[in-house]
Amino acid sequence: MLTKRIVPCLDIKDGRTVKGVNFVDLRDAGDPVVLAKQYAELGADELVFLDISATQERRRTMHDMVLKVAEQVNIPFTVGGGISSIADVDDLLHCGADKVSINSSAVKRPELINELSDKFGSQCIVVAIDAKQIEGEWYVHLAGGTIPTDLKLFDWAQEIEQRGAGEILFTSMNHDGTKSGFANDALAKLSTLVNIPIIASGGAGTIQHFVDTFKDGKADAALAASVFHFGEIAIMDLKRKLKNEGIAVRI
Question: Which residue among the candidates 51, 88, 130, 212 is catalytic per the annotation?
Fold first, then answer.
């Protein structure tokens, strides 16, 4: 049985970790390199870094950070934000990232998924989807959730798999930062439509929410930010609870 993964997420803006609610009202959560080292020591299975500002300095900031993180952690970490070419991915992997996450660039040019998968292998290509439920239908949003599209979540997820991505990171914009639980109905449907791992994101507030997303949402991994950044949930306490619930985790 494959173990379920617990994945702290560090949203990076101007070199700092930030966290908001529904993608807005950001507040500072600390130095990403320091947090990465702490999470690796505290039992996280993987880490995700997302540059949400995509400023002109993105390349330099992200590369410096990736190099520093690679020196501090011994668990896989994924880097995303503003990645749109083979050269971008090549640079980040050479700096020490294990996987990359693409989002807006994949929607704008879906063949990018094929190109990256063919070049680097599907195992290191994660496609992130930020989606919002509007009148019962889930629609994909771009640019940190600021640009709505007509693209539907479930159609896009199936295309992502067909084009060779190794994993999908699905964030529910409706749930992000609300601490009301993950979008388990949508996650469960995703799990029936694709055969690649699904990372659940958006809504973690309690340990029970993680239990529910693994059992009801059929998620392969659960990503969270503020509950870890601000000490509301300890990773090992969470894993012990999951194990007691019969969910396979690495302890």
Answer: 130
